[in-house]
Amino acid sequence: MSVPEPLSALAAAALEAIVRSPSETLVASDFDGTLAPIVDDPERTYADPDAVAALGRLGEHVGAVVVITGRPARMAVRLGRFREVAGLGSMIVLGQYGLTSGKNVWEIRSPGIDKGATLRTIVDESAARQVVFAGDDLGDLPAFRAVRELATQGVAGLLVCSASTEEDALTELSDVIVDGPGGLAVWLNKLADRLGAESR
């Protein structure tokens, strides 16, 4: 039941902290390109069912599961089919970051509001001591930076890149690199396996 090893000693320590204290852990993710594959029609971008099921499994162990997306929140809930999954009854979906989803698009948002600011707020509100954030492109960079800044304040962080051939902006900053939404599903399931084993 091993979880793929993080790329640094600091990230490995964060993973161990997550395993020791999952109830103080916040698991957050982007939607497009991370939980859902990028497709030509944004209305048909359904989340990978295995990734959503894995989030549900984690929801049974961790303090909070959060999706932060550029889509309207209701659309993300519908396309993610989150309401159909056990373990996601208290999931938080925050969608305020743009008018279109996807890669290589313009985002229009209020000044000072980005995924990093939102992630910091939800970490503060949940009193999380560990945070996992999964993302795939430049829109997720503020959240990646926020996780690194939170680490200097005693909140252990683990950054997961849902990599693709279209975008590699986050790979050098990531602690774990997976192969798109399917790879993220595998990683999340392995983490859920480990948390389940530790709780027995």
Summarize the structure in words.
By secondary structure, this protein is of the alpha/beta class. A 6-stranded parallel β-sheet has the order 3-2-1-4-5-6, sandwiched between helices. Strand 4, helix 5 and strand 5 form a beta-alpha-beta unit. Helix 2 runs parallel beside helix 6 and helix 4 packs across helix 5. It is globular. It starts with 8 loop residues before the first helix and ends with a helix. About 4% of the residues have low confidence.
Walk me through the topology.
Layout: H1 9-20, E1 25-29, H2 49-59, E2 64-69, H3 73-80, E3 92-95, H4 115-126, E4 130-135, H5 141-151, E5 156-163, E6 176-179, H6 180-199
Helix pairs in contact: 2-6, 4-5
Concise structural overview:
This protein is 37% helix and 16% strand.
Biggest β-sheet strands, sense, barrel: 6 strands, parallel
Alpha plus pi helix count:
6
What is the average of the pLDDT values?
88
Whole-angstrom Rg: 15 Å
Question: Strand tally, please?
Answer: 6
Strands of the largest sheet, in order across it? Answer: 3-2-1-4-5-6
Give, in order, the helices and strands: HEHEHEHEHEEH
Structural class: alpha/beta
Unreliable spans are: 102-108
Q: Which of globular, elongated, flat, extended, rod-shaped describes the shape?
A: globular
Tell me roughly what share of residues is in helical segments. Answer: 25-40%
Roughly what fraction of the amino acids lie in strands? 15-25%
Q: Kindly report how far apart the N and C termini lie.
A: 14 Å
